[in-house]
Amino acid sequence: MRLFDLSGRTAVITGSSRGIGRAIAERFAEHGARVVISSRKAAACESAAAAINERYGPRSALAVPADIASKEDLRRLVEKTREVFGAISILVCNAATNPHLGSMASLTAEEFRKALDLNVLSNHVLVQMIAPEMCTAGEGAILIISSVAGLIGTATIGVYGISKAADMALARNLAVELGPHNIRVNCIAPGVIRTDFSRVLWEDAAMRERIERTTPLRRFGEPDDVAGVAVCLASDAGRYITGQTLVVDGGETIC
């Protein structure tokens, strides 16, 4: 278990009151990390943190609501984490949005800007706030939750895919810059994971049947399928992996 041990480490995870972010927070806590639960809604953050504290101990989780669109909220998230848990050693940028469903021809400039601001720029801002203390410590792990939409073309969620492809490039460049300080930066690109975010896909019977039939593992992914990869990349098990995008899609993109 030592390869996957996160004891003594503090992890900030955005978008972690539910779905993939929540699963990552729970598995990090299970492996010994102190986790910071953050999303826009305070009640959801408090509920998730309380559940983790009940299961793994009273100082396992801290709730700090934050809107990733607000630089002030992000600054408060970082400062509150330091105040309660100390230095941040793991950052997981999971929160994201899809402001447009449809063709690129119908995409407005405002929707394009929103996707880039929330899915890419907010990650950059958080890294700028946290990376200096990781450099001082001489270690750290940064994970950006991207998507297989950043690897393929799509007629319906094009701007989302563009922003997620940008996250992959962001991770590669950060890995080059921060590698000499022993800081690893990677992306995880999930396929269709059974969360509220993808509900429109797995609640539609025809769509569900098509995805399950064409995915080699013949099922949708679950949040824990992504969380396991996150534990690996954040721990010593992934200590020689950086600048990569790990695809977690049941084989969907190989077909």
Question: Explain this structure to me?
Answer:
The chain has 255 residues and is α/β, with parallel strands linked by helices. Helix content is 46%, strand content 14%. It has one domain (2-248): Rossmann fold (3-Layer(aba) Sandwich), CATH 3.40.50. β5, α5 (158-178) and β6 form a beta-alpha-beta unit. The two termini are 34 Å apart. The mean pLDDT is 96.
Mean pLDDT: 96
Distance between the termini: 34 Å
Please describe the biggest sheet, giving its number of strands, its sense, and whether it closes into a barrel.
7 strands, parallel
Going across the major beta sheet, what is the strand order? Answer: 3-2-1-4-5-6-7
- Share of helix among residues? 40-55%
The CATH H-level superfamily is NAD(P)-binding Rossmann-like Domain
How many independent structural domains? 1
Question: Could you say what the CATH topology is called?
Answer: Rossmann fold
What fraction strand? 5-15%
In the CATH scheme, the class would be Alpha Beta
Work out the helix count: 8
Radius of gyration: 17 Å
Keywords:
about 260 residues; alpha/beta; Rossmann fold; 7-stranded parallel beta sheet; globular
Kindly summarize this structure in a few lines.
The chain is of the alpha/beta class. Helix content is 46%, strand content 14%.
